[in-house]
Specification:
Number of strands: 17
CATH architecture of the largest domain: 3-Layer(aba) Sandwich
Largest sheet: 7 strands, parallel
Structural class: alpha/beta
CATH topology of the largest domain: Rossmann fold
Distance between the termini: 56 Å
Number of helices: 34
Radius of gyration: 29 Å
Helix content: 40-55%
Strand content: 5-15%
């Protein structure tokens, strides 16, 4: 299974996938597999797990068998692989969705050596006829995707996954690569033991996703906030997660009514509807999917630009996995969660009736989620700490807590009090008991253990239990305390904590958020910085062409070219096949298969616009903002009457409104209340505003006047209120 010396792995990477360099551990993982070693991979969502078995499958003899639990994901990945080759038979899937004729074609291609990658559902692998068929094939290696499904300790246990090893032994032994995004050591050991690969080469990647922006907002006017956010990100793909099916249906309908292309997606829908919704999302016929938290979507779409949680998930692992669906191509990914403690209480109610040990573990996971939501510590630092990884940067610059830090105070003495309390209680109690103990709160548990008689009881009574929970969380993140998740979250002193008790030093701490009591502050949220010096006009045209080519080929647009490839085209202006092959993410195969139409379009665009390309060492100039627009903005800021502004600019009122509309549509927020309140009655203002907010299907002025009544409302009134609406609701 070794690669020929004359061709390096990077050459193969460039040839088949169009990339110049590997990501993270990809190269060493691939070398391990090609050397014939069993390999175990822990890599977070978006880290590039698929390439670790896709590339080896293309450069080895025989067929690589990939065991995957999701039919939709199989189809998606097969489409992607076929996009890199001129032979449709290079990749197939084998599952219950195939007809007899399709099944026969798959088997012929595999036995004829055409198929290098075969996706198999674990249920299909256990069927006798499939085992007999695969015995005849030359198996290059086995790849077990979503390997956490093997473990009962994993978050998505599937009993049929525990039968994989016996089936592999029957088909014929070949190297095994198991891949998962779950990092807990217990799950890892369980997987390796079940697959009998305890001596496998193990590769763990960092769980840090630097491109993802994390934010938690108070759950006030959440639906309105979500609509506003999506409208501020037009044309971008996103997922909104809800707790219940009912809320999924309700929110999806609300988004549609407000002009957003959205559809619901949950386990209660029939498979044909779910499959149709997935296809529409992949093909960019819709922008947003509203889904239940509990349902795994299995959509391998690299250009999802935002993931919104209407309800907070039941564990940080679920939250990390769901937010991990954003920005898998390394581009922008905004992750926003709406939090209220009421949602935590709902999730606790759902646990009632389950075995006590399941309830205890479930409650502990919810406490972790609550701590994450309410904490003012860097979101990234908290997530990585949860997965056992230390993040040493003080400020990640890409989460709400880092971009808007709360005021800090000296925490040394408070941390010492917590550590002394944990030591006194001999590491046998959870954080709520320790916080009550310090605050001097006499609970039934405190009384039953007679802890109210301890000398340290109430030593921190100047602060409430909530404050002490904040200090405990900081001690955990700093590594001064350890939490035993298996034993329901008992707090124990770490080695670092014992050292701190002997030699304490200054640690600054900030108070946690209190989302259920504070006012919702408009504009308090922050957006990650945008980047990319691209020709946006060309980029838009390229996206239209990609969509057209995708529909002609009945493929999702990103299979043709991913966003970063189009952006590179809009910077480099490739007009020959050689130049196209050098675009990021475009190899020789892709350039040959899909590149010609894009080359022709770019060539025509360059000629029409008289663009001197970057290859000619001339930098394109950036057009400055219109001086007229800047002056109008300044005049409105000074609250000049619109008639006076029009007069000084030599404009008719209609022309001035055209300019103001253009300013607002470009994303600038203007406050025209000082003028509107003088010229339009309050009742009329409300009627027009409500129309655009609740009834309008388009922004059409004609439709608005027809609906509101042209006799009672003037065109100028409606235009002014529409400007106010877009400024307040859209920007």
């Amino acid at each position: 299974m070794s690669v020929g010396a004359e061709v390096s792995l990077k050459d193969y990477l460039k040839r088949y996938f169009g990339f110049d360099t590997f990501k993270g551990n990809q190269e060493v993982i691939i070398r391990s597999l090609l050397s014939g070693h069993d390999t175990f991979v822990v890599m977070p969502t978006g880290g590039g797990k698929s390439l670790c078995y896709q590339l080896p499958s293309l450069i080895t003899e025989g067929t690589a068998i990939v065991i995957s639990p999701l039919i939709a994901l199989m189809k998606n990945q097969v489409d992607v692989m076929r996009g890199f080759s001129s032979d449709e038979g290079v990749a197939h899937f084998l599952n219950s969705s195939l007809s007899k004729g399709q099944m026969q074609q798959v088997k012929e291609d595999v036995l004829n050596g055409k198929t290098q990658l075969l996706y198999v559902a674990p249920e299909s692998l256990t069927k006798e006829e499939n085992v007999d068929f695969l015995k005849q094939a030359k198996v290059a290696f086995y790849a077990i995707d979503e390997a956490h499904c093997i473990s009962e300790w994993g978050h998505d246990f599937r009993p049929e996954y525990r039968k994989i090893r016996p089936m592999v032994d029957r088909i014929g032994r070949a190297p095994i690569i198991a891949l998962t995004a779950t990092a807990t050591p217990k799950v890892q050991h369980d997987i390796q033991k079940n697959l009998n690969v305890l001596d496998a080469n193990v590769f763990k990647s960092s769980f840090n996703r630097p491109n993802l922006y994390y934010e938690v907002r108070p759950k006030k006017n959440a639906t309105k906030e979500i609509i506003k956010f999506i409208k501020n990100n037009p044309g971008k793909s996103g997922i909104v997660y809800c707790l219940s099916r009912k809320k999924v249906e309700e929110l999806a309908e609300t988004l549609k009514v407000n002009g957003i292309k959205a559809l619901p997606y949950h386990a209660g829908m029939d498979s044909a509807t779910r499959s149709g919704t997935q296809d529409k999302f992949l093909m960019e016929d819709i922008d947003v999917i509203v889904a239940t938290i509990a349902f795994g979507m299995g959509i391998d779409k690299p250009d999802i630009r935002f993931v919104i949680h209407y309800n907070i998930p039941k564990s940080l692992e679920a939250y990390y996995q769901e937010t991990g669906r954003a920005g898998r191509d390394g581009g922008e990914g905004k992750c926003i969660a709406f939090y209220t403690y009421k949602d935590i209480q709902k999730l606790e109610k759902f646990m009632q009736g389950k075995p006590i040990n399941e309830q205890e573990i479930g409650k502990q996971l919810l406490l972790e989620t609550t701590a994450y939501a309410e904490s003012s510590v860097c979101r990234r630092k908290q997530l990585l700490h949860y997965f056992g990884e230390r993040y040493t940067e003080e400020n990640c610059q890409n989460c709400d807590n880092c971009l808007h830090p709360k005021e800090e105070f000296e925490g040394r003495d408070y941390l010492l009090q917590v550590l002394k309390a944990v030591k006194t209680l001999k590491g046998k109690f959870k954080h709520d008991h320790v916080s009550d103990f310090l605050a001097g709160k006499v609970t039934n548990a405190i009384k039953s253990y007679k802890h109210h008689e301890n000398d340290l009881f109430g030593s921190g009574q100047d602060h409430d239990a909530r404050f002490w929970k904040t200090i405990i969380r900081r001690a955990l993140v700093k590594g001064l305390l350890d939490k035993d998740i298996i034993n329901y979250g008992l707090l124990k002193l770490s080695d670092e904590g014992r050292k701190y008790l002997e030699n304490p030093y200054s640690i600054m701490i900030s108070q946690d958020h209190d989302y259920d009591t504070r006012d919702d502050q408009e504009g308090a949220s922050s957006e990650p910085k945008k980047s990319g010096a691209v020709d946006n006009e060309l980029l838009s045209i390229l996206k239209d062409l990609r969509k057209k080519v995708a529909k002609e080929n009945n493929l999702p647009p990103f299979v043709i070219f991913q966003d970063f490839s189009l952006e590179d085209m809009a910077i480099q202006y490739p007009i020959t096949m050689d130049e196209m092959q050098n675009i990021t993410g475009v190899g020789a195969g892709k350039a040959k298969k899909y590149g010609q139409k894009f080359i022709e379009l770019i060539n025509n665009y360059v000629n029409e616009k008289d663009i001197i390309r970057a290859q000619d060492m001339v930098v394109k100039s950036v057009v400055n903002k219109s001086g007229m627009k800047v002056s109008i903005i300044q005049s409105i800021d000074r609250q000049m009457p619109l008639e006076d502004i029009a007069k000084t600019k030599g404009l008719e009122m209609r022309e001035l409104l055209d300019e103001i509309e253009s300013i607002v549509q470009s994303g600038t927020k203007l406050n025209l209340d000082y003028y509107i309140n003088q010229v339009i009655d309050e009742d009329k203002q409300e009627d027009i505003y409500e129309y655009f907010l609740e009834e309008a299907e388009t922004e059409s002025l004609k439709d608005a006047l027809q609906e509101l009544g042209e006799e009672e409302y003037s065109e100028e009134d409606v235009r002014l209120m529409r400007i106010k609406f877009f400024s307040e609701y859209g920007n």
